[in-house]
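#onboarding

Welcome to the new folks! Below is a worked example of what a typical request in this channel looks like: someone posts a single protein sequence, and someone else replies with the predicted structure as tokens. Don't worry about understanding the tokens yet, we'll cover that in week two.

Example request:
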Amino acid sequence: MIKVLIVDDSRLVRQLLETILSSDPNIKVVGVATDPYDAREKIKRLNPDVITLDIEMPKMDGITFLEKIMSLRPMPVVMISTLTEKGAEITLKALEIGAIDYIEKPKKQLSNELNKQSELIIQKVKQAARVNLHAIANSSSLKGIKEHLVKNQKSLTSDVSLIAIGASTGGTEATKAILKQLPEHMPPIVIVQHMPGSFTSSYSNTLDQNCLLKVIEFNCETLALKKDHVYVANGDHHMTINKRNGTIYANQFDGDPVNRHKPAVDVLFESIAETIGGKSVSVLLTGMGIDGASGMGKMYKTGSLTIAQDKNSSVVWGMPRAAIEQNFACKVLPLNDIANELINACYKESTIKTRQPL
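Example response:
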């Protein structure tokens, strides 16, 4: 039984979340709190396994309260976040501090829209109860490690022409930790991170401020990809890759969700397998579910280097595990070793040989 404390100043949101979560026989809402001071006392008394925490509250904002929780009594926290640009920036800050995930709070038709998300809300709370808190603490310690390795390297010396990264829960910070360690003069990097479209612009800006590479949100019909650039898929569209006259292009389309996600990692990886083949590298990071495993398998069979994050460093070992269990990962690495592996794959110093297609 997962014990949940709901912290929100809105009576309607408290009631909706309590009804949704209580509908699952494995979840028990042990209490509700109207502000952080009320929540602090109830955490001590009720000892919840998971907290849902609103960002905007009276007396103390959710970010300040989250910082206190993570410094004094680390525990799984799922944020309640509005689908706005400001909400996206604050939510990304919460994930950086240590929040596990977020529930999207719509600005209109609150009751109807939250109820539509019932299954996903239950899934996120259940997943939060099982996360690796140790991995979250370690990801914070990566912020200064090995940043911007081989800064003076001037040219690529391998035939790797594209790197693709897929991530979900815990992935915003995991991806940031990798990109912070990469030098300039890398091949194009494309990223699918499971998040809504209103968040991907803010997320791209955050990454850009922390990296030597230029990071942008990919949000157009088609675009020729450049070295030294990172492209984050827009959260409302799938991303695919094709190649014309020797130039690699990214494309986006508004199709149905795949593996319940749009964008989906499988859609990206499968398109790379078809067009780039063994001259690509895929990385599958922490995340809930199986998205990316099938696509990584197709890339693996073309001779691509495929890398999966290991269990101990993953906040949620779902997506990487699915690929590993099917023997689709050439390398299984802790988070703080992945950047160096990518550098080795792209530069002359690499000890990695291009894999032969199966």
